[in-house]
Write a structure and sequence with these properties.
Elements lengths: L3 E4 L4 E2 L6 E2 L4 H5 L6 E6 L1 E14 L6 E14 H10 L3 E9 L2 H13 L7 E4 L5 E7 L7 E8 L7 H14 L5 E6 L7 H10 L4 E6 L11 E2 L3 H8 L7 H12 L3 E5 L5 E5 L3 E5 L13 H14 L4 H15 L10 H9 L5
Parallel strand pairs: 1-16, 4-7, 4-11, 5-9, 7-8, 11-12, 12-13, 13-14
Antiparallel strand pairs: 2-3, 5-6, 9-10, 14-15, 15-16
Helix pairs in contact: 2-8, 6-7, 8-9, 9-10
Amino acid sequence: MKRTIKKVTGKRSGEKTGKVSGTKGLPRFIERFAGKKICVVGDIIADVFILGKPYRLSREAPVVVVKYEGSKVYPGSAGNTINNLAALGARVYPIGFVGGDSIGNKLMDFFSGEKGIDTGGIIRHSGGTITKTRILAGDTHVSKQQVIRIDRDEAGRRSAKEKGLFMEKLAAICPHMDAVVVSDYGHGAVGSKVIEYMKILANDKIVVGDSRYNLKRFAGFTIITPNESEAYALSGIAEDRPIEEVGERIMETMRLASLLVTRGNRGMTLFLKDGMAYNIPISGKDDVTDVTGAGDTVCAAVALSLASGADFLDASRIANYAAGIVVMKRGTATVTVDELKRSIENGGVL
């Protein structure tokens, strides 16, 4: 199917006829965010940041010694999607695994304490929590830079009983949701049984898919949100070919209602089942501060917007504004409803 590509600026092309309206309609969907029930299924990890100040060279090796100043723990991967949804006012129901260690305790305290999230779908297992530890170093009055990242993954320790309980949680929670986000970072939470269940659920529910390595398994979902390199890999098309060819190939083979490709400082491109496609320019500045977790923000905003009655284009535009905000923040960050409304009102500027 040859696609008609439309460029979306401050306006929207709502129909094939080219009917145009402004951005004034977007805030009405954002106002409906509060209380929407969204389930996030996937790999919940801990993003640990250890902060320090370099102050001398080591005598033991030709490396800088960093003096410890503090540490912070944030939910990452599916945990970041959960956090973003909560920050936008949704009632979030996570389903995933968290270890029985101290880091896992901090994540659970973060969810249930600070955010008031229902953690009944989170299974505590005997192994350690999946953790990405980043060492950040810098002087007192400058931005700290990442020196090294250390990953810990003990996902293989989950028992058959724990995996069975995971499916029980899906069956008990998902049918009562307004939308479901599947956040697959390759740590084993999103297995083949989960995927098959989600494909059935997508017949009458909004199912948004985000996967670092296995997007092909998400055929039949409502919408997937790969970045540009993931989309090219999924399509099998060479990266020197136009993005339109990539979208056409994916839409032809994956039985999606929609495809949203995030493209860094080139914005996003949305593909619809009816043959339409839209190029959505970047929101805000293109000199970003930190892209960590921006894809999780996009997933959260798309799912919540669709659950609030937005069509795919308006949901993608709202997600574009959300991404434009979060990439200007450091670390695993979130966006609030007030920030989102203000960005839309100011054309992408807070």
